[in-house]
Structures are given as structure tokens and as C-alpha cells.
Amino acid sequence: MTKDVRKIKTERDIQQAMLRLLTTKTFRQITVADICQLSLTSRSTFYAHYLDKYDLLDKMVAYYSTIFNEKVHDRFNQMIDGEIDALVRGLLADMADNRDAIRILFTVHEPEADLEATFHRLLLKEWQQFIKSEAPTMTAPADLIAAMGTNVQMTVIEWALQHGETSIDVVADAVNTIRKAVLLQIKPTMKNK
Amino acid sequence: MTKDVRKIKTERDIQQAMLRLLTTKTFRQITVADICQLSLTSRSTFYAHYLDKYDLLDKMVAYYSTIFNEKVHDRFNQMIDGEIDALVRGLLADMADNRDAIRILFTVHEPEADLEATFHRLLLKEWQQFIKSEAPTMTAPADLIAAMGTNVQMTVIEWALQHGETSIDVVADAVNTIRKAVLLQIKPTMKNK
DNA sequence: ACTAAGATGTTCGAAAACCAACGCACTGTT
DNA sequence: AACAGTGCGTTGGTTTTCGAACATCTTAGT
């Protein structure tokens, strides 16, 4: 039931080729022939794995989205406490291996496949759920605050993807101030923390 | 007549695996199973390409030796002039792609396969030929001077392999002084240069 | 409107790689 | 001496990949 090693290898090669090509060309400009040439796979093999280059992109985005979703869901509860976001720091640690891939895919914005947008959506959903359970009634509109929290975190994530995780320390104070301000809208009792 | 892409890929994978393993273990400690596991190739495929791990090492050494030999032979005549060794600088430029591989293989010293020793031997042969044609009669023993020249160059090569090519500039003066002293033994007429 | 070039997606026989299994040799227990 | 453990090298049937060919489809040039 487990996959043949050859399948794993060709999919790895094809996806690596796609990522490398994306550093040079636009997704639209990339041809299936380009991918095959760089990955040393034959045309027919490519189509044995993917319907077309859109399907390929789709599966890549789906893969990283799944990982992200799992990690977010696991860690979301730890978010409130801790300096900067324990969540964000944890996520970046979890995805250290895939950082290059994610950074590259973040530059691709196709209607069918958009990793950045997907991450944003997943994060927003968790925020909404979080607010609903923690503070059912709020003075400020819940959706607004959820959007705020999401955007703050996304900003940190993207910044760390570009500049490296360690660089988080540089902006920790600034981000913390903002984070606390957002959380204050949800849990006013946290003032004295 | 040209090789199937699949052969190229598996040989590439196997050789990369060998190099990566050599950064961790001794050549003796490495097993065929290790290589197969890391390169994602099956045991039977390995033996379809190589007799055993010694044969693999052998072919890798042979490959880089061939390249080295060609480059040395092409460039040896340009050696005398130019600051530091035009030869050495040229060689390092030619082999920039393979620098990591060569640096790793230089740490392996098996009686049947020793890249460092092979490079040394090839270089020495060129020096002997050079002296024979340029200065058939010399006061100092030709073999001694050939050995000197070879060792000076090998030292620079190994130093550059470790520290990067640009770092040659740092030691250029020192090496040049020595190089000139060696060449003076061959061509006393160069005093005034 | 015609053509040439390049890209897509499919088909099929041949070549290569996989994998599970086997026998063998060597080493270190108990 | 029997034993398990590990590494070597080989075998044969199965699966995957390759390569070359083919029929579209789009796009640019004359």
C-alpha cells in the first residue's frame, strides 16, 4: 500500500524543479517542458503524476497547507501567553525544513492555488473560533478583532520567512505591544499582566 | 549510444549519498546499505552500476582525476607568468562546481583510491615534463625542484579548497615569493622579472 | 489565410529500477 | 557449539520510467 520509491523520487524532483523555476520565471511562463527538463523526468511520467502544471501547484499548496493547518490547530491554545507569539515561533520552528519552499510559494497567486491566501484563511478561522469560545460577547465586532490578530501574525510570519527566524528578536518588542493591544479587546481582564 | 537518463540520475544520487555520508563516517564505516538508504536506490540497482563501494569510490576519484588532468595539461604552459599561479587560479575556477566534492574526497585515503595522491601525481608529472623541456641541464636535481613546485601548488590548492577561492588574495604575496624562488632554479634568466 | 514553431496531452514497447527473498561469510554472544 | 545479528552480493517477477511518436491547439510572422 505504501508508495514505490520511484514515485516519491520523481515527485520530489518535479516539485524541486518547480520551486527552482519559480525563482526565475512567473508561474504562467513556466512550461511542462521546462519542469521535465530541469527535473530530468520524461513528459509522459509527468502526466502520470499530475494532470498539468496547475494540478502540480495545487498539490504543492495543498501539502504545505495541511502541515500548516495541523500545526496551527495544535498550537493555537498556547498563543495567548508568552512573549511575541509562541504560536508563530512554534510554527516557524516546525516548518524550518520547508521555509524556502514556502517563501517561494508565497510569491505565487493563482486563483486556484494561493498558499499565502490559504494560510491567511486558516489562521482567520482559528481566530474566529478562539474569540467565540473565549469572549462570546464583545464591545468591538468580533470579525474585526479576528482580522486584526490574523494580520498581525501573518505579518510576523512573512517577515520571519524573509529575514530568518532569529531576526524575530529584533522586532519582538514592537510586535508584542501590538499583540497585547489586540488581545485586550478580547480579554480586558488581561490588563494587569 | 548516450546513457539513459535514469542511469545518470541513480549514479548522481548514489554519488551524492556517498559524499554526504563521508562527512559523517569513515569510508570503511560506510555500508552499501547506508548508501542505498540515503540515495533511495535499491540494493540490486546499486550492484547494477558498481561492483561494490570500492568500485564506486574508484569511479568517483577517476572522474575528478580526469577533469583535473585535462585542465592541468591545458593550462600548464601559462603557469610561469602572472601573479600567483595562473594555473592554480584557473584550476579552481574550472572546478568551482565540484569544489565540495573534491574537498570531501581529499579526506579519503584508500590504497586503491586516493584523490589527493592522484592530483599530486598528475601535477608532478607535468612539472617533470616542464623542467625537462625548459631546462634540460640544471645545477639542482630536477626531481627535487619538480617536487618543490608540485608541493607549493598542492598547498595552495588545498588551502583554497578549504577557505574559498577569493581568500587566495590574502596569501598571494607569500606564495608568489616562494613560487619565484622555485622557478629561479629552473630559469635563472628570470632574475630581472 | 497559411505556415511554422512551440506547447499540450496521450499512447506504447523497451529499458531500468524496485523489492522481497535467498545463500553466504563473518562476528560476537550465551 | 549453537545462536542471532549484520553486511555482502545475486536472482526473478513486478512496477515505473523513458523516449519517440502522434494528434491537437495556440500564437506569431509573412
Automatic annotation (TrEMBL), chains A, B:
The HTH tetR-type domain covers 8-68
Provide the transmembrane region boundaries.
none
- Entry's InterPro entries? Homeodomain-like_sf (IPR009057), HTH-type_Tx_Regulator (IPR050624), HTH_TetR (IPR001647)
Q: Mind telling me what this protein is named?
A: TetR/AcrR family transcriptional regulator
Which domain of life, per UniProt? Bacteria
Task: Name the DNA-binding stretches.
Answer: 31-50
* Keyword Cell division in annotation: no
Which species is this UniProt entry from?
Lactiplantibacillus daowaiensis
